[in-house]
Amino acid sequence: MYIRKSTPDDLPEILSIYAHARAFMKAHGNPDQWGDIWPPKDLIRRDISEGTGRVCIGDDGRICAVFYYNFGDHIDPCYDRIYDGAWRNDSPYGVVHRIASAGTQKGAGSFCIRWGYEQSGRHLRMDTHRDNKVMQSCLAGLGFVRCGTIYVTEDDAPRIAYEKWEPAASSHNPQH
Predict the structure, then answer these.
(1) Which of 4, 60, 72, 121 has the fewest Cβ atoms nearer than 10 Å?
(2) Cα 122 to Cα 94: distance, rounded to the nearest angstrom
């Protein structure tokens, strides 16, 4: 598997993967996190145009997962305030959002998260809905620490905030 930036030509496949992910979430006790329309097509187009949309290419040469990735200092305003806890480190960090798998390549989601962690100089933050037990289990298995609660601008449902940070990586020069 490998990761590349998404392109406008990828849009139909990306939309299909997100539809699959919404159905998967509903079937696994998480019907509210993405509902019936998240993420909207305009947001995916913006990710593509800004260079923050990513696709994971599976062993068969097809897109098997999609996600948003960015890196920087305070790049996610929703992460500026954390409740009932604290971030482990305030240095620049990477984020992975809107991650979804087509269900065609085992381990694709974990591969994408590990990629984001490496690209960000081993400092990655993520969040998920309290009903998303699958993602909570995945993040715990990848060594992420539950840090507290954040709120996103899209709705008023709290999100569980996670962070993985390796102190020895502070001198690493992240690639974008």
Answers:
(1) 60
(2) 8
